[in-house]
Design brief:
The structure is a homodimer of 246-residue chains.
Chain A (H helix, E strand, L loop, with lengths): L1 E8 L16 H13 L6 E2 L8 E10 L6 H14 L4 E9 L11 E9 L13 E2 L6 H9 L3 E4 L14 E12 L2 E8 L6 H13 L7 H8 L14 E7 L1
Parallel strand pairs in A: 3-10, 5-6
Antiparallel strand pairs in A: 1-3, 1-4, 2-3, 5-9, 5-10, 7-8, 8-9
Chain lengths: 246, 246
């Protein structure tokens, strides 16, 4: 019996989605609970392996159970155990799916948001939730620069050296930038992303926002197909996996 | 030279505003920095002494400096030191004021917000930021009950036993309740509040929202003038001092 889980987590004290030997991960928390339910070890696959410090509003994973169980009961079993372990992870919903459903390979769209807090004073209440940037950012210039990223491109300039994707060519469907109070919110969507792609795009667009790069520089950087041409990687704490579409 | 400070803090790991011997407080962090600036110890007075775990979006305090300093320089001096000490406190603004200004006694209005997360699954991203209540709350019923609290009343039923106020009689100017996504937000305003008054009002209104008390019970509870008549104290983490008016 296959079930689809939708998962929220606070990535601050996690080593990311994937199981690691040296610290807690979402996968480990969830697999340990699944092992109890199944009585044997089964691996859990997610839509995307988020990095250490990255959050999820709605990560998706699938699990296989040895027996049928009501959806609400699976949810309560996971959340009860997660609360008890004080895991920074919560199951938002559980849904029975076909055996053919695969959280990773059936995904048609992944959406992320990136939050920048753009004000002079730091915010203790938003620590590890936003990237605090004290110098005023020009949103219009960032939007102009972001336009060059939309579409089908070789994103090598925005790809982490550790990236395991077969090809650096991806299609970016959306990159919207909006002001919300003192925050600047980036919304990006694609079928899939390269490792660090969103954080590298945001880190480079921030240089445009500060006036240290002209918007057209994004085109040149993209065409260089060289990670050294782009700006720094934006911090993990501002990034949220917000939706996976199937 | 007197200056008005507007302060944000994450109360989660603080013992509250007031200096304590057994742990960190906002007052202690700020006074230690002020001591450095002045070269001698001076106490700092705030608009209200928030409890352990309670947050502030805009607490107000005043400080006296031995010499004149540009406002921005005072702000940077405080924030530089606070960041270095990883204090969960930030100075949002500094403003030169008359000697007659007193953060506590000149305050004409205090506003708080209280955030309830009303959904089945807990939220790791909002831990210590909201009160998570999994059973559905009826907002209309809570509003009906809240109406009885508006105005000039003896609030003994909602007063902590440790409260040091001379009189239990206060005037509640506003208690608005609204839904915002999965959250229920309370906004309350008064010239001043009794100790735990907001949290005791919210804790009691939650019983009305759950249908465990009828809205009219709030009137009876208020008239009882007895803390035992009301509901439990809502947790500190959902409460934010949001504005002080002068």
């Amino acid at each position: 019996m296959r079930y689809k889980l939708t998962i929220e987590y606070d990535g601050t004290n996690l080593l990311g989605w994937q199981r690691q030997l040296d610290g807690p991960s979402v996968q480990q928390y969830l697999e340990d609970i699944l092992d109890k339910l199944n009585g044997e070890h089964k691996e859990i696959t997610s839509a995307g392996r988020t990095d250490a410090g990255v959050h999820a509003l709605a990560q998706v994973a699938h699990i296989d159970l040895n027996r049928e169980m009501p959806e609400w009961k699976i949810k309560e079993a996971f959340n009860g155990n997660l609360l008890q372990e004080e895991a920074p992870v919560s199951i938002l919903s559980v849904e029975a799916v076909e055996e053919s459903f695969n959280a990773r390979f059936s995904a048609k769209k992944r959406a992320y948001i990136y939050r920048i807090l753009n004000r002079r004073a730091p915010s203790p209440l938003l620590k590890n939730r936003v990237w605090w940037t004290p110098y005023p950012l020009d949103i219009e210039k960032m939007r102009e620069g972001a336009k060059f990223l939309i579409g089908h491109h070789d994103f090598s300039s925005f790809r982490a050296s550790a990236c395991q994707a077969k090809s650096p060519v991806k299609t970016l469907d959306k990159i919207d930038i909006r002001q919300e109070g003192e925050e600047i919110i980036f919304e990006v969507e694609a079928r899939s992303f390269l490792h660090h792609q969103v954080r590298n795009m945001v880190g480079t667009l921030k240089l445009v926002g500060e006036g240290r790069l002209p918007p057209e520089a994004i085109k040149t950087i993209l065409e260089a197909k060289d990670r050294n041409a782009a700006g720094p990687t934006a911090p993990a704490g501002g990034l949220y996996l917000s939706k996976v579409g199937y």
